[in-house]
Fold these 2 entries.
Entry 1:
Amino acid sequence: MPDFIAEWLNQNEIFTAMTIMEYWDGMVTTVHLVFLSLVIGLLVAVPLAILRTVRNPFVSGPVWLYTYLFRGTPLLIQLYIIYYGLAQIEGIQETFWWEIFREPFYPALLAFTLNTAAYTTEIIRGAIISTPNGEIEAAKAYGMNWFMRMRRIVLPSAARRAVQAYSNEVIFMLHASAIASVVTIVDLTGAARNIYSRFYAPFDAFIFVALCYMALTFILVFAFRKLETHLLKHQRPVNG
Amino acid sequence: MKKMIFAASCALALIAGGAQAQERDLRIAFDVPYEPFEYKDENGELTGFEVELAEAMCEEMNANCEFVIQAWDGMIPGLLARKFDLIMSSMSITPERAERVLFSEPYYNTPGGWFGPESFNSDVTDMDAMEGKTVGVQRGTTMDTYVTENMGGIVNIKRYTTADDMVLDLEGQRLDVVFVDYPVGEQTVLTKEGFKEVGEPVKLGQGVGVAMRQRDTELAEEVNAALRTLKEDGTYDTIMQKYFAYDIKM
C-alpha cells in the first residue's frame, strides 16, 4: 500500500479497516439483492410482456393492472406493505413461509422483483409492438407459426430495441435499492447510516457511499455499452 | 413633578421595550414521537416531559422559543447547519457526540430496558442463552453502543431509525427482544398485550443533555443556569411527576 494512503488511513478515525469491511459487506448485499431481483424480474417480464400484447383483454388486462399498480405507487410503499404487511397476516409465523419472510432480505427481494418486473414488462412490450409490420408479414409468408415468429423474429429484434431503455431501468434499480436499509438490511446505504450514527460525520460516511454507487454505475454503463455495440452491430456503417 | 414622572415612565417604557426587543429567539428541535419525552397529544399539540421542561427553561431564560420537529438522523447536521439552536430530544452525552456539539449539564438519565414477548424466558445477561437471538435497538443510541460492544457477534443486531418500526417488528416476531430506553419501552411495548420486561434495566452513559453548537458557550451557560434553577425550585419535579412514577432526575 502506498505510504500516503497508509498514513491517511492511520490519521482518520472513520475509514479504518473495520468500517471499510462494513462498507464491503454492504456492497455485497446491495449487489446480491439488485442482481437477483433484476434476473428474476427479467425472467418474469418477458412472458408477461408477450401476454400484455395479446388482443384478448382477459389475458392482457390482468398484466396491465399489475404493471399499472406497481408503476403507479412508490417502491418504498411497496416495500413497507410487503415487509410489515406479511408479518400481520394471522398465523403466518407458524407456516414455513415465515422461515423465508422473517428475514428482511426476502421481503425486499420480493418487492424489488415485482417492481422491476412491472417496468421491464412495459419496456419489452413497447419494443414488441414497435416491430415493423413487414418483418411479421415476411415471417408469415415463410409459413412460420406464432411461436416460431416470436422466437425467431419478434423477440430478437425487440431485445435490440429494448436494451437502451432497460439499461436505465437497471441503473434506477441499483439506486432505488438504497431504500432496503429502512427495513434493517445493512446494504451500502445501511452501512453508511450505521457508520454515520457512530461517528456523526455525515459527509465522510455518505460521500464515500455515493462514490461506491458511482463505481457500480460506471461498471453497469460500461457493460451495457459493450452489449449495445454487440447487439446493434448491423446498424454501424460498414467502414465505421 | 408630573412632568418628571411622565418622563421617567417614558424612559421606563423605553427600557422595557428595549428589553422586550432583546428577548432572544431560540429554536429547539425534537424528534417525535418519543413517548413520553416528546409526542403529539390527541389534539396534535406537541407535548411530553422534555417539551414541558423546554417551555419552563425558555420562560426562565426569558427567551422566545420556537419548537422544531426534526428526524433523529438529521439532528446534529441540522444543528450545525443552523436550522435550530438547541436539541432537547433525549440526546445522551457521549464522547463522540461531544466532539461535534456542546452539551449542557445532564438533565435526566434513564436506564435501558429489555422487553420481549411473554414466551421469552432466557436470561439476557447469559451470553450462551442469548446466542443467535435477534435483538432490536435504535441506531446510534447508547443502547445500540451497549449491545454492539457487549454482545456483538453473539446476538444478531437489527438497527432501527424509530422505536415504532422496531416495536412493529417485535410484534411481527422478527425480533426476539428489544433493548430500548426504559420509559419508551414502558409506553410502547408494555402497553401491548403479550409483552413483558425480560431483564433488569441497565444503567447507561452520562445522562441526557441539551446539545448546542460548540461556539455557543454563552448560551450553554444560560441553559445550565436555567436548568439548575428549575431543578432547585421544584418546577423540574412537578413536570417529572406528571410523566414518571420513578426518579430520572440528574
Entry 2:
Amino acid sequence: MIKDQRRKERIDRGIKVRSDGIYAMMSWRELTYLVIPRLVLIIGMLILPLVLPGMYWQRVITITCIYALLAISFDFLAHFVGLVCLGGAFFVGTGGYLTAILNTSLGLPPLLTIPLATLLGASLCTLLLLPCLPLRGVFFAIVSLMYPLFAMRVIEALDILGGTDGIIGIDSFANRWVEQYMVIGITLLFLFGVRRLVNMDIGLVFRGVKDNDQAIRASGMNITIFKAIAVFIAAAMGCMSGACLVHIYMWSGISQFALDFSILPIAATVIGGGGTLVGPLIGCLILVPISELLRDFGTLRIVFYSLILVGFIVFRSEGVMVYGQRKYHQFERWTRI
Amino acid sequence: MQILIYGTINSVALALFALGFAMVYGVSRLPNFAHGALYVLSGFITWTLINSLGLNYLISIVLAMIATGIIGALIYQFVLIRIRGMEISEIMASYAMGLAILEGLRWGGFKGMTYTLPAFIEGSTSIAGVSVDYQRLLVVGIGAAVVALLWLFTRYTRIGLALRGMAQDERAAMMLGIDSDLMAVVAMGFGSMLAALAAICLLPLGNIVVEAGYNVLILAIAVCIVGGLGSWVGAVLSAFLIGFAQILTVVYLGAHFQMVVALLAIILTLILKPSGLFGRQKELEERV
Amino acid sequence: MSKAPILQVQSITKAFGGIMALNNVSFDVFEGEILGIIGPNGSGKTTIVNCITGFIKKTSGHVLFRGKDISKKPAHKIADMGITRTFQIMRPYYSLPAYKNLVIPLFSPRARRTGGWRGGGRLGDRNTVGIDILEEIGFERDSYVPYKAAATLPTGYLKRLELARCLALKPDVIIGDEIFSGLSMSEIASMVPLIERLQMDGITIIMIEHRLRELFRVANRVMVLNFGEKLMEGRPAEVMADKRVKEAYFGSQEVEEVMTHA
C-alpha cells in the first residue's frame, strides 16, 4: 500500500473571486488587484523607449511591437476562431508593398498610407483567402503557409514590384519618437481592442466557430462570413505591422514575405501562452531581444528559436502567461488523499 | 520528346521526394514538415562520410541512409510522439525541427562552398536524339524499384502489413495487437530513409544547398496534397501530373516558374478538392 | 391535423459510397404535429435529419418547406428559414456558462429578425434573453445552474440546452435527434410536458427516437425506417400493431415491453 498519497490542489485566491464582478468597484484593494497588471504593462511599454540606452535598442523595441502585432493576430485567429494561419508573412508583405506603392507612386504621407494600406491590404488578404476558409485544421495551415511563398515566387518570377531588389525610397516617420510611440500605441490599442472583441457577443460566435461549427450552422449562421470577418481583423493587424515596418526601414522587398514573419510570431505565441492575447506580446518581448543579441551568430538564432519553439510546444504548451496568470489568481497546496 | 523524357525524370524525382512524406502521413497522420531538412541532412552526411572520413561510396550511402532513418525515428520518439494527434502542434514542431536542422547546417559552415556528391555512374547516352546522363536514368530505375518494393513490402511483410493496417484504421490496428507508437516510429524511420534515398539519387545532379530543403518540402507537400494526403498511389500519380506540368512551364515560361507551379497546385487543390484528386476521405468527413 | 404539410420530403436517396443509407424515402409533416421517426440501429434516422437540414448532400430527392424547394440550400440557410435541429452528440461550448451558450444562436440573423424567443420589439441584452429562454426550458432562474459552465452540466440539462439553442431562433420546425436517449426515466418524464408545450406553442416537431414508449405517448404520427427504407407510417397504435414493425425490431426488448403495455 502506498502511504501518504498527496495531490496538488489549486484554489482561486479570495481576492480573485471578490473582484470578479461589479463589486470590485467597491474597494481600492480589489480595484488595485484588477488594474495593477494592466497598468504595469501599459506604463512599462510607454516608458521603455525612454529608459533604453541608444537608438539601437529603441529600434529593437519598435520591431518587437511589430512582431507582437503579428503574434496577437496569430493568437486571435488560432485560439479564438480556430484558423491556424501559418502565413502571417503574407499579411506583412501585402501591407508593406501596398504602403510602398501608396507612398512612392501617389506620394501620400505615412499618416495616410498606414491606415489606407491596412484597410486595403486587409480587404485584399481576406478576398484572397476567402476560397480557403471552408478548410479546417491542417489543410488551412498548409495552404496559408503557401500563400506568402507563392507571393514571393511570383514577384521573383514576374520581376514586378521591383523584383528581388524591392521598392526603395519610402518616407520614414517624422522622427524616432513618433515612430516608437505610434507603433507602441497601435500595439496596445489592438491588444486591448481584441481582448474586448473576443468577449463581446460576436467574439462568442467566433469562439463557437472554433469549438463547434456545426452548431453555428444549425443556428442559421454562415461560418464563412464569420471566418472572413475574423481574417479581416487579423489581416488588418498584419498589414498594419507591415506598413509600419516599411516606413521604418524605408524599403519594401520580398523578404517581407519571408518565413521570419511567419515563424517568430508563432514561437512568441507558444512561449507567451496561446489564447491569452497578452501572452504573444510577452513572448515577443522575450524572443525578439534575444534574437537580436544572437544576430552576430547568423542563422544560429533561427536554430535557437526553433528549438525553443519545439521545447515549448512539446514540454510546456501552456506558455509563460498562462503560468503567470495561474500564480497570480490561484494558490497551490498539497493535500492528502 | 525532350519534354517526355525530362518530364518522366522530373516526375520520378518528385515521387521520390513525396513517398517518404506520404508514408509518414499515411501511417501516423503526421504532416512531417522536417522532411526537406532530412533530405538535405542525409546529403551532408553522405558528403561528410565520403570526404572527411574517406569511406567507400557504397558504404557511405548505406550508412547515410541508416543514419538518417535513425535520426528521423529519434526525432519522432523523443519529440513528436508527445504531441501525437495534435496536428497543428505536429506541423509547428516538425517544421521548427526542420528549420533548426537546416539553419544549423547553414551555420555549421555548409555554405558558400559548393558541395557535390559523386554520381553513381558517370557518362551519358542519348535516347531518341536527346542526351541523358546515366544518373538520371538511374533515378528513374530506382524510383520504379522503390515503388515496386514498397508495394511488395506493404503486402507481404509483417511490418508492412502492420503499417498498412495503421494507415487504414489506427484503433482497429491497436485492437489487433499492433503497437501503434512503435509503428509510427518505424514509419518515420522508413520515411526518413526514403528522403535519404531521394537525396542520394538526386543530389549528384547538382550542388547540395540548404535551400533545397525548403523546395523539397514544398514539392513533397504539393505532390501529396494533389494526390490526396495519405494516399500512396495518389502520390505517385500526382507526381507525374506535377512533374510534367513543371517541365512544360519551364520550357514555355521559364525556369522561375517551376516552384510557382507547385505552390499553385497546392493552393488550387486545397480550394477546389481538399481530399485531393485521388483521395477518398471526403465521403467520410461528410458524416455529421 | 388536416392542415397543409409544412415539410414535404420527396423520395430522398442517400448513398455513402456503395452503401444505401436512405432509399427513396418520402413523407409529409403537417403543421403543428409531432412526427416520430423510429427504426433499428443503422436504419438511416440520423441521415434523414442531416439530409433535411442540409448538413449532408442528398444523392437525389427533394425537400419542400411550405411548398418551396429547399433541397439545394446550405445548412445555415435552412436553419435561417426556421428548421432547426438538435444533435445526437451534444457539443455545447463547454467553457462558456449555459446562458452564454445561447448568446451565440441569438446573434444569428434569424434571431435578430424575430426578436428572440419572447418575440416583439428589438432584441435586448442577449444575456437576459438567454436566461429567459433557459427558464422556459426548465433551468431554474434563481439557481446557479444557468450560470454554470456547460462542461459541468448533467446530460439532462445539456439536452435542454440543445433544445434551447433551437428555441433561440424561434423556429417553425424542430427536428430532435434522440432527445430522450441517455436520460433517466424521471428526466424523460420532465421532458415530455416540455415537448407538449412546444407543440401547443405551434411548433412542428420531428422526433427521432429509440425510446419508443415515451415517443408513442407524445407523437401524433410515427414513421418506421428499416435499412434506409420507409417501412410504414401511421398513428402510434397502428404502428404498434403492425407485424412488419415487430419483425424489424425482432428481439428488441423494448418493443416487447411496449407491445405488452399497449
